[in-house]
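PNPLA domain-containing protein structure dump, as promised
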Amino acid sequence: MVEHEVEGVKKSFKDGGIRENNPSGAAISEFHALYEGQAEEPALLLSVGTGRPDTTKTDGFADTWPGPFGRLPIVAKFLEKRAVVQNLLIKYTEGEKQHHQMREHAHGEHTWYKRLNVSSGLEEMPLDDWRSGEFNGQIVPGGASLSHMQEATEQYLERDFDQDVDSYAPPSVMLRQAAEKLVRQRRAREAMGGPRWEAFVGKYLHGYQERDENIPIAGRKDSDK
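structure tokens r here:
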């Protein structure tokens, strides 16, 4: 749980992933519900994980303490409570199981489904880790956590293909392919136009500014200066 002040009010934020830690299955179900009869598969379903879990950890079942101490009621109760906590924590590892199911459903990650998930460096980092420290040259709340995640992510994107965790390509290739697919989809939407494209670019939002059709796409950024 993370506590943060919002507009002068101190609020608590809890991770909502215990029920659906990897929502890719829910996302594909919603896609089929919305586009039944229109499309058999999405253009891209990109799943972004919070880091691969350490699969060498205990499975969450209660241990037995060797010797006569294990039969003491207070010790047995302690072990039972610990097992309950471990079983709750193991829910966070189920994201990888969902990933394997999605990969089978999509017939591989070279199709419309891709997953980016840091493979090493975050195994021991709790999901609610938020340690103060330096980030981008400044000491800020959560800075140490952000720096740790940034370092692990950069190493992940720079590493070569690892047959133990990668299905067909290194992370950098997966990321580039996902980005290219998103750019092509955006260009196709723009070329098609219509109310859905106008809603996509925020035409009906407050403060929307009409685009000058004479300005090419590549020059829009410079025109806003």
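DSSP finds seven helices and six strands in the chain.
lmk if u need the other ones
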